[in-house]
Write a structure and sequence with these properties.
The complex is a heterodimer of chains A (163) and B (564). By secondary structure, chain A is α+β, with helices and mostly antiparallel strands. Chain A contains 4 helices and 9 strands, in the order βαββαββαββαββ. The chains are: A alpha+beta (163), B alpha/beta (564). The structure holds thiamine diphosphate (TPP) and magnesium ion (MG).
Chain lengths: 163, 564
């Protein structure tokens, strides 16, 4: 099962490598990982998308909590939450493809943010699976480059992760 | 205003550190200079940094104090890594201070630079790189606090040389709060109630305890609780001494080389109370084949990640072991009923009557016999350290530990070479106590240079070298599982250990006949009470450790000596 794990940790040098190191040392997989400071600059918020059986996810949460720099850990996917990921994708846009790509971008509510005679750069946000779907729907050989931020997530309503 | 180096030493004084085990070098010269100018903290100069950490670890294991080691940057730090990983696997509280190249050199491949924080990250409870002299005191405070609270462990403090030269005011924090680290103490009362109910209703109960009981100083509470309940109990390799081994309720050690009765009771119980133990593969074997009967498991541990890691637990209790046991006891005392388990004991006595630990005497010295004599002559009161191999298992099986912190060995990492440095740490921290290191001719050579340290500090350690001229544990596996192909499991050209001991200024005695064992031990412990004595005991070359559960098998599939 896919899980989105949110972590609040001390914004200290090395804190990120402790988390990443834990995953590799114990053989847990990381699909995506994002990290940035929060409004309180002494804190970082880290989101990891991982997958595993219930037992594995339980161990991941416990092992994360054990890290000294980690303040709180939440499995967002346990309850209502929102997930978003940003993708920048550069595609070849010539001839009839130019129109087609634009139409697709519109359907997915993407924005074209860079235009040349030969290429578009499209900005797209959404859940990981929406970004996947967009990539699927564009002809593979038109795609020149993709860059994705990895998933960020937040609980709905009064589910708040704070110190 | 004092220097960073002086601050480091002042912090150690504030923490009442008596001994620092270390080895100097460029990056820690300022710290050594500060050490020189005071006499509260004593420095023990080892001969290899690995031994510095092991010795600090031996001190910690034998006392419940935090062990402290001090090494230089680069090779000093990398030499320390084996010691750090060893302590980490057994949750031993240590603070290791490592020198680092000056801050403005970091990242430039400077002389004796290595990424100490990066290299040690996976084998420490936590580590720090101090980048400002103003942070030294608070960092040291945190290091000691983290090392010795919650589930203990080693903490590395990496200090660049320029930071130890810089100056600032010294102010040692009285106590410390960390929002990201708040270890629990009390167990959840509801869970404890559930556990007590299960225990009192059990027909075939079993208590299984590990290193956590020793580390948290809960032997007394455990003994009271076990006696009150009248249940059988087993202590793991790391937990020996938590419950008196000479008591009839004690079934011996469980696991790969545990007793038949302990393993069978583990497999057939209906309620298992696990305390400060982690269902390690050497203890329960293959989890798929663990526990044959329908059963409930209660697990008390300070570390939630140890619970339900290898075996599903029914009643988890996260908390400090002595606190939880006291709460349990209170609830049990309030109950008038006593569980009736006479039938269960009858079954256990049946398993016990197999006498799985018996061995046959021969013309050559049997290693088991040496341990039995060692037990007799030390009155069961010595601190016994061991290395890793067959000798370690025989020491664990045949020396009956009645008290905690008397048995020091590397259970988790299984590090050959710990025995002598452990004995050094234990001897320094427990003056007047008998300290013996049970080792093998392979293991002792991994830190043999420490004979020199032991001479310098006049440590009257007795080295019991069970010399089978084989890397015996490896040979045993090759005999049993590799068609007796003894690939590289023996050494040609062993040193003359008697002469070697003498060369270092110690007493060396070689023993080759069973009838000489007792006399030699007496000579070592009585006549040469104040000397380090190296007893090189030539034992039966091909003796094997039994009983045995092969790796990957279940505890019920024991091989007893007589099966062969
Ligand atoms: C540092 C290290 N290297 C290798 C091993 C693997 N190993 C485990 S037991 C053993 C043999 C130990 O031989 P010895 O010290 O003579 O003890 P014996 O088994 O003969 O009693 C070896 C090589 C280990 N545990 N530690
Ligand atoms: Mg040997």
């Amino acid at each position: 099962m896919r899980h989105i794990i949110s972590i609040l940790l001390e914004n200290e040098a090395g804190a990120l490598s402790r988390v990443a190191g834990l995953f590799s040392a114990r053989g847990y997989n990381i699909e995506t990982l994002t990290v940035a400071p929060t409004e309180d600059l002494s804190l970082s918020r880290l989101t990891i998308v991982t997958s595993g059986s219930d037992e594995v996810i339980e161990q991941i949460t416990k092992q994360l909590n054990k890290l000294i720099d980690v303040i709180k850990v939440v499995d967002l996917s346990e309850a209502a939450h929102i997930e978003r990921e940003l993708m920048l994708i550069k595609v070849r846009a010539t001839g009839k493809d130019r129109e087609e790509v634009k139409r697709l971008a519109d359907i997915f509510r993407g924005r074209i943010i860079d235009v040349t005679e030969l290429t578009y750069v499209i900005e797209l946000t959404g859940s990981g699976s929406k970004l996947d779907a967009f990539i699927q729907s564009i002809e593979a050989d038109l795609i020149l480059e993709t860059v994705r931020t990895g998933v960020s997530g937040i609980g709905r309503g009064d589910r708040i992760l704070k110190v | 205003m004092i220097t960073g180096a002086e601050i480091v030493i002042r912090c150690l004084q504030e923490e009442k550190v008596e001994f620092v085990f270390g080895y100097p070098g460029g990056a820690v010269l300022h710290i050594y200079d500060a050490l020189f100018k005071q006499d509260k903290v004593k420095h023990v100069l080892v001969r290899h940094e690995q031994a510095a950490v092991h010795a600090a670890d031996g001190l910690a294991r034998s006392t419940h104090k935090v062990g402290v080691a001090l090494v230089t940057s680069g090779p000093g730090a990398t030499n320390a890594v084996t010691g750090i990983a060893t302590a980490y696997m057994d949750s031993i509280p240590l603070v290791i201070i490592t020198g680092q190249v000056p801050t403005h050199y970091i990242g430039q491949d400077a002389f004796q630079e290595c990424d100490t924080v990066g290299i040690t990250r996976p084998c420490v409870k936590h580590n720090f790189l101090v980048k400002d002299v103003n942070d030294i005191a608070i960092t040291m405070k945190k290091a000691f606090y983290i090392a010795n609270s919650g589930r203990p462990g080693p903490v590395v403090v990496d200090i660049p040389k320029d930071i130890t030269a810089a100056i600032c005011k010294f102010d040692y924090p009285k106590d410390i709060q960390m929002r990201s680290y708040t270890p629990v103490v009390k167990g959840h009362l509801g869970q404890i109630k559930k556990a007590v109910k299960l225990l009192l209703g059990a027909k075939r109960p079993m208590i299984y305890t590990g290193g956590g009981v020793i580390l948290s100083n809960a032997a007394e509470q455990l003994t009271t609780l076990t006696r009150r309940l009248g249940f059988p109990i087993t202590n793991t390799l790391m937990g020996l001494g938590a419950y008196p081994a000479t008591d009839p309720q004690f079934l011996g050690m469980p696991g790969m080389h545990g007793t038949f009765e302990a393993n069978m009771a583990m497999q057939n119980c209906d309620v298992l109370l696990a305390i400060g133990a982690r269902f390690d593969d050497r203890v329960i074997g293959n989890p798929e084949n663990f526990a044959l009967q329908p059963h409930k498991i209660i697990h008390v541990d300070i570390d939630p990640s140890s619970i339900s890691k290898r075996v599903r637990v029914d009643v988890p209790i996260v908390g400090n072991v002595p606190d939880v046991l006291e709460d349990m006891l209170k609830l049990i005392e309030a109950e008038s009923s006593k569980t009736e388990i006479a039938d269960w004991w009858k079954e256990i006595e049946g398993w016990r009557s197999k006498l799985c630990m018996k061995y046959t005497m021969k013309d050559v010295i049997m290693p088991q016999y040496v341990i039995e004599k060692l037990y007799e002559i030390t009155g069961g009161n010595a601190i016994i350290t061991s290395d890793v191999g067959q000798h370690q298992m025989w020491a664990a099986q045949y020396y009956k530990f009645d008290k905690p912190r008397r048995w020091l060995n590397s259970g988790g990492l299984g590090t050959m070479g710990v025995g002598l440095p452990y004995a050094m740490g234990a001897a320094l921290a427990n003056p007047g106590m008998q300290v013996a290191c049970v080792t093998g001719e392979g293991s002792i050579q991994m830190c043999i240079q420490e004979l020199s340290t032991a001479k310098q500090f006049r440590l009257p350690i007795k080295i019991i070298n069970l010399n089978n001229r084989y890397l015996g544990m490896v040979r045993q596996w090759q005999e049993m599982f590799y068609g007796s192909r003894y690939a590289e499991s023996y050494m040609d050209s062993l040193p003359d250990f008697v002469k070697l001991a003498e060369a270092y200024g110690h007493v060396g005695i070689r023993i080759e006949r069973p009838e000489d064992v007792e006399g030699a031990l007496k000579k070592a412990f009585v006549d040469h009470k104040d000397d380090l004595v190296f007893l090189d005991i030539l034992t039966d070359r091909e003796a094997n450790v039994f009983p045995m559960v092969a790796a990957g098998k279940g505890l019920s599939e024991m091989i007893l000596a007589e099966d062969l």
